[in-house]
Amino acid sequence: VEESGGADVRMSAGGATGYIGTYSAHSLQILQNSGAAITIDTSKNVGIGTAAPSLQSGGTGLHINATSYSELKFTNNTTGAAVGDGTALVTSGTGFTINNREAGYLSLGTSNAVRMYIDSAGKVGVGTSSPSNRLEISEDSSNTAGNGALKISSPSHADHQFSFRLDTTERDLH
Q1: Which pTM value belongs to this model?
Q2: CA-based angle 86:100:105, to the nearest 5?
Q3: How confident is the model at residue 18 (pLDDT cuts 50, 70, 90)?
Q4: 96, 97, 148, 169: which has the fewest Cβ within 10 Å?
């Protein structure tokens, strides 16, 4: 289907693959109740609940919009797929929640390593994935610069600080 001066939309098949989309520089929308339910714009951004997906990064991604709650939910064969299963990223007003609805852990990582870990009992580990206390901070053994495991300081007064660190030679609290 082609509209004069507008989008060229086609449905076709090639081998074992079926195709639906635009063959021109126009967005593709799936409508529900005469409104855009899903939009794929010309930059390949996907919008759910919005006809104009916009991303903070300026890259390509997913934009979910709703009148009150927006949710991105992850489930698998282990978690189940009911309302209370899986893991969800949820916005409510100006709040944001990361919720593992299972009796599992939540971890954050950088450089392909776990940096912070919250177990199913709510124990938090920084530098460890097996915290034994409510909050456990474990300094990396490669840290030979003498930096503290925990530092509390004043941004306006560099000399006002409180640090906890283990000095392996003196075993002092600094």
Answers
A1: 0.70
A2: 115
A3: confident
A4: 169
